[in-house]
Structure formats: structure tokens, C-alpha cells
Amino acid sequence: MSTSVGFRQMKDGTRADYELLARYEHDYARALPERVLAALGKLDTGLAGYPVSRLGHSLQTASRALRDGADDELIVAALVHDIGDDLAPYNHAELAAAILRPYVRPEVTWIVEQHGLFQSYYYAHHLGGDRNGRERLRGHRWFDACAAFCERWDQASFDPTYPSEPLERFAPLLRVVFGRPAHDPRYVGGGG
User: What are phi and psi of 39, to 5 degrees?
Assistant: First the structure.
């Protein structure tokens, strides 16, 4: 049995080629939770100036969500909401939402996708920006949920004395959410 496809251009691929690739893709996708955990671990270094690392911030945010009684999807979202910081510093929220989208309900994806805009409420005016940019989304059915995510968990999670749960505490939950079949209507159904 071949271990690679025989084509040089996708249009020349055969059924056997694409079946082989589908098997490899399936195996690769099964390892997604471990890659997400590794990416979170890399947030322990990077952006300077804050009193905690990006990983510390993520763990605080998820710990606050957990202690606030949030559901599993929101806890995982709180954990990974800034995972895009390293590769997409100016649109990290969209990258994090794209990672979550195949595995969680649309509300959770929307909250993560919009959290960057909503967070600007706390600082944009100090830099000459419009802190009320989020107001253009007022009336959206998940506006209040995103505002609460940011107020209760995200903006409050830069405290070096906060007793965060360790990453290992969240790893099983993350493995469950990212171990779901991608785009399964049981999880992502419900419209956007």
C-alpha cells in the first residue's frame, strides 16, 4: 500500500489517492487536542508588559469561567480565546473563533470572534480610539453574553495573585470538545 499520493496536481488525483489522504487527515485531526494544548503552552512566553503571561491570562480566564458555572464549551473558549495572539496579533479573535467553530455552538464562536472588539471598551479611549465600537453590535442576540464574557472573565484576568487552575485541569475538557466530530449538528447546530 502506498504511503503518498501519485499526483502532482490535485486534478489528476484518483479515488485511491483521496481515500489515502482522507485516512491521513482523519488521523491528523484526532491529534488536534494535543496540538491545541501545545499551542497554549507556547503562550507562556511572548508579549511583554502584562503582569502575567498569555498562558497565565488564559488560565485565569478559564478558571473564572469554571468557577462561575459556565458550560464546557464556554470554559474551553475562555481557555483558547487568545490562542491566536502569536500568529495573528491584530485579528487573534477571528483565528481563535475559526479554531473553535467546527466544535462548538455558534454563540460561543461569536463571543470569541467578537471579544477583541468588546475588550477595546476597556482601553481604546486611552489610545485615542473609540471604546464604544462594540455598540454597532448592540441588539445582537449574543451581545450581552459577549459583554459578560469580557467583563467577568477576560478583562479581569491579569492578576498575578489569582489562584488559577493549571492547564492539566482543563486538558480533559479540551480533549472532549476538540475530540468531537467536526461540524457535527449536535454541537454546532442552531444557526448564527
Answer: -65, -40
Domain spans in the chain, listed from the N-terminal domain onward? 14-188
Instruction: Look at residues 107, 104, 112, 109 and name the one whose alpha carbon lies nearest to residue 85.
Output: 112
- For the stretch 43-66, pLDDT in tens is 998 778 999 999 999 999 999 999
Cell representation of residue 49: 508588559
Class in CATH terms, 14-188? mainly alpha
Taking the whole predicted model, whether its pTM rises above 0.85 is answered as yes
Q: Give yes or no for a contact between 111 and 68, defined as CB atoms under 8 angstroms apart.
A: no
Alpha carbon 169 to chain centroid distance?
17
Helical H segments across 31-156, by residue range:
32-41, 54-67, 72-80, 92-100, 106-119, 143-148
- State the greatest distance between any 2 C-alpha atoms of the chain, in Å, as a whole number: 62
Residue 137: which of 151, 158, 116, 156 has the closest Cα? 116
As given in the structure block, the three cell numbers for residue 67 are 468557577
Distances (CA, A) of 52 to 38, 43, 86: 19, 11, 16
Cell 445582537, located at residue: 140
